[in-house]
Amino acid sequence: MRPLTEEETRTLFQKLSKYIGENIQLLVDRPDGTYCFRLHKDRVYYVSEKILKLAVNISRENLVSLGTCFGKFTKTQKFRLHITALDYLAPYAKHKVWVKPGAEQSFLYGNHVLKSGLGRITENTNQYQGLVVYSMADVPLGFGVAAKSTQDCRKVDPMSIVVFHQADIGEYVRHEDTLI
Amino acid sequence: MGRKLDPTKKEKRGPGRKTRKQKGAETELAKFLPSAGDENGKRLSSRARKRAAKRRSDSVGAPEKKKLSPSPKPLTKGAIQSSQKKGPQAPGLKIGNEALFGPARGKKRPAPPHSSDEEEDSEGNDARSEGDDWASMESEDDMVDDYGVASEEETDEDDEVWHPWGLKGGCLVPFFTVPKDIFCMFHPSFFVFSFCPQLLPIEKAAQKQRAQEAETLDQWSSEDTDEEEEELSSQPTSKNDEANGDLQINVEKDEKFVLPTGKEIEQENILLGQILEGGAPDLQSVHQRIQDIVGVLRDFGSQREEGRSRTEYLSRLRKDLATYYSYGDFLIGKIMDIFPLSELVEFLEANEVPRPITLRTNTLKTRRRDLAQALINRGVNLDPLGKWSKTGLVVYDSSVPIGATPEYLAGHYILQGASSMLPVIALAPQEHERILDMCCAPGGKTSYIAQLMKNTGVILANDANAERLKSVVGNLHRLGVTNTIISHDDGRHFPKVVGGFDRVLLDAPCSGTGVISKDPSVKTNKDDKDIKRCAHIQKELLLSAIDSVNAASKTGGYIVYCTCSITVEENEWVVEYALKKRNVRLVPTGLDFGQEGFTHFRERRFHPTLRSTRRFYPHTHNMDGFFIAKFKKFSNAIPQSKKSDAAANPEDSMDSRLGDGPSVANVQVVPRPKVSPKSAKKPKQAGKAKFAKLDTGKAKFVRLGTGKTKAKLGAAGKEKARQQQQRPPPKKAGFQNGKPVHKGPRSPTARTSSSSQPPPRKKQKSRS
């Protein structure tokens, strides 16, 4: 387990800011203590310092996970965000999408969101903007990327994709093995 | 709205148009209910009357010809027939029935023809029935008639042949099954009495038949024991000869159950052997026998069979239970040891049925009320779990898969057994504590701890199985638990890796005898070796868990040990071991329901505080079998075993190993055991320096003093506990009083005497 290098930190924050913008500061300085990111086996973990103190006693091959896993770095040093980060990103999300109940199930299976399933979308969403997908009951369902800007969404036909799927909570059941 | 029934209306006959119209209700009904119009007899046309008469004469004539032939005549009932209600009958039916009845009645003798003739003549005109009523009543009477007459001759022969309608012999009534009450209504005696005052043979036969029926009903209910009965015919006491014996024994049967003899058991063994070839033991009879034996054992004094001991009954029961519920012999024996007879069968039955699905609300993300509402909207039928749980819900049925709802995926709840919630309730973790969960997979209990702590403090969740850790990671992330470190390590390494926890939860790996309903393979693949191996690992784990706790913790110092097993070797025994080996005591779990743990079991005696542990069973609490014990550690010191004579280590036990003392103590130990009276001085010198600190403290204590005692004690160094125990008690008492400095507050409950023994020896050497 080691702290992130500069490069890695930059990549990570770049990715995160796509979804939550400048609220990253809120992630680090929280009222209940300082939190930090740590790298362990190519995965980024977000932990508070108290937990970190205890975790350093565990050897590398025995440590499996600590705090919350945000995602992992691929072999080419790109950062891939995992669904496990949803709880932290959802409250700070800048751009959100609400999905109709019928399309909710489809999204949870890993499909993209079509115009017909789109309930609401925040204004001024650019194309390829990072989004957090919600259900109509305000339950966060996952992450996505806008395929069309808000303006275009209004014009386009019902069968076209408006949100590319990136991660959804159905993965807890579908991809249990890859979480670790 | 239907047509009205008007009995005065005449039915139109003939080829005209009016006859083709739909007739009134009364005539239509008459076609369907043969009895409806039969009370008064039908008004027959001349030709119909002739036909009826011809039929009757045929029926009478036939038995006359065949009087002496073995095949009886169905139409002897002509006598009785006429007195009965008759309905319309297709001409063909009679013949068909005759064919049926003819060969079947091979055994029966025909009824005496003259009596039947008489009756027929007297009644023939009155009834004027068109046809014979081959419906139930008549055939029954036919049966009765034959039966009555022939029964005298055939009583003995027909005992073994038993027919479900209460009729003996070869008399079959495949067409008609008569409810008993209708039969009685149309008993020949009813009608015959009105005509002839004296008792006709038919009446005698009827009465006899009634008596025999009553007996055969009893015989039917105790048929199984019947077979065994015959097996035991060799025993002179049970019956004399078959014919009389059967009846008598039938009566006794109701009171007493008889164990099968070797013959019967051989038969069964043959049957069991046949399983391999495709045969099967008769489960019905086995089940019946189980119930009988349980009944006998319950009231053994009066119900027992003479000459049979209780152990014979018990061993028979054991084999039968093993056969019926498919258990291996070892496990069924264990279960029979634990449960009294009244609960035994209930427990086994409960293991065949799965427990209800329960889930636990994740209070980090939602409330139970809201979750219940959301699930009900999805079509799940659920209820709160009970008074003892504020977050549990039990699911009765669901139209959607309960493990894949959006609420599940959003981490609002987790599927968890009711008994798995109990250890965490017993542990009662507080906020900002450091908790260790030694065997955490699949993470249900860990997440419950986190939710009770509201994501504060730190939890170290450990498991030895890497595969199952994946589900821990998944569950904890899904439920939004952020204060957890997940590690993959053997639990026995624990205090060495990191220690000083406030509380520890140990859900030890066990044999799984409490969750047989989830995994039926446990019934057969567990044996003594498995249980002992499990118990050994559990003891090691529990000692490590105890050593990982900091007794001086402000809010904690508790260890909860739980297993999903019901055997005493894995539960009370392990707890007892820990009580002896470490400075812990049992405290109440905080669970107000559940059965108390055993304080004695067969030949073993456990510490009385074991009453505060709790056992749960599937048949009493409708949750998986479970055992929970809560310890409080009152001292970080580790009491030494009797072999070594070093004082308990005053510092925290960070480097404990099973059975070994802390390293400091080891050094002290080394010179001691080898001490002989001659070389006493040398080690004494060495020891003196080490014990300088302690000696000053102890100098004021009890004098030991003579060379004799010293020599004795010197020799004792080589031997084990025996000699130490021979020391006079007052010495020990003295030491107990004088050693509060080195040990924590001692509990009044029994500590091993060994802890007080080392000091006297040390003091002696120092002084001399």
The CATH architecture term of the domain at 419-633 in chain B is: 3-Layer(aba) Sandwich
Number of strands of chain B: 15
Major beta-sheet overview of chain A: 6 strands, antiparallel
CATH class of the largest domain in chain A: Alpha Beta
Q: What would you call the structural class of chain B? A: alpha/beta
* Rounded radius of gyration of chain B (Å): 43 Å
Mean pLDDT of chain A: 90
Tell me the number of structural domains of chain A.
Answer: 2
> In sequence order, what are the helices and strands of chain A, one letter per element?
EHHEEEHEEEHEHEEEEHEH
- Overall form of chain B: elongated
Strand fraction of chain B equals: 5-15%
Q: Give the strand content of chain A.
A: 25-35%
The chain pair forming the largest interface, with residue counts per chain, is: A-B, 34 and 31 residues
* Average pLDDT rating of chain B: 70
Pfam families (chain A): pre-PUA_NIP7, UPF0113
Protein name (chain A): 60S ribosome subunit biogenesis protein NIP7 homolog
Domain PUA (chain A): 95-170
Subcellular location (chain A): Nucleus, Nucleolus
Can you characterise this structure?
Helix content of chain A is 27%, strand content 34%. Chain A is α+β, with helices and mostly antiparallel strands. Chain A has 2 domains: 2-88, Roll (Nuclear Transport Factor 2, Chain: A), CATH 3.10.450; 95-175, Archaeosine Trna-guanine Transglycosylase, Chain: A, domain 4, CATH 2.30.130. The relative contact order of chain A is 0.14. Chain B has 768 residues and is of the alpha/beta class. Chain B is 47% helix and 9% strand. Chain B has 35 helices and 15 strands. In chain B, the strands form 3 sheets. In chain B, strands 5, 6, 7, 8, 9, 10, 11, 14 and 15 form a 9-stranded mixed sheet that branches. Chain B has a 4-stranded antiparallel sheet with strand order 2-3-1-4, covered by helices on one side. In chain B, strands 12-13 form a two-stranded antiparallel sheet. In chain B, a hairpin with a 2-residue loop joins strand 12 and strand 13 (604-605). Chain B is elongated, with a radius of gyration of 43 Å. Residues 66-194, 223-249, 274-279 and 644-768 of chain B have low confidence and may be disordered. Classes of the chains: A alpha+beta (180), B alpha/beta (768). At the A-B interface, helix 3 and strand 5 of A face helix 20, helix 23 and strand 7 of B. Strand 5 of chain A pairs antiparallel with strand 7 of chain B.
